[in-house]
Amino acid sequence: MTEVMSAEQAIAATSVRVSNWGRWGDADVLGTLNFIDAAKRRAASTVIRSGETISLSIEYGLEGPQSGNIGRFNPVHTMTLTDQSSRTFPHGIGASDDLLVMPMQSATHWDGLGHIFDHGTAYNGRRASDVVTTDGDTVTGIERVTQAFASRAVLLDVGRAVGDGELPDGFAITTEHLEQTIAAQGETARVGRGDIVLLRTGQLARCRREGWGEYAGGSAPGMSFQTIDWIHGTEIAAIATDTWGAEVRPNEFPDAFQPWHQVVIPHLGLYVGEMFDLDTLAAASAADGNYDCLLVAAPLAVKGGVGAPVNPIAVR
Question: What is the pTM of this model?
Answer without folding.
Answer: 0.94
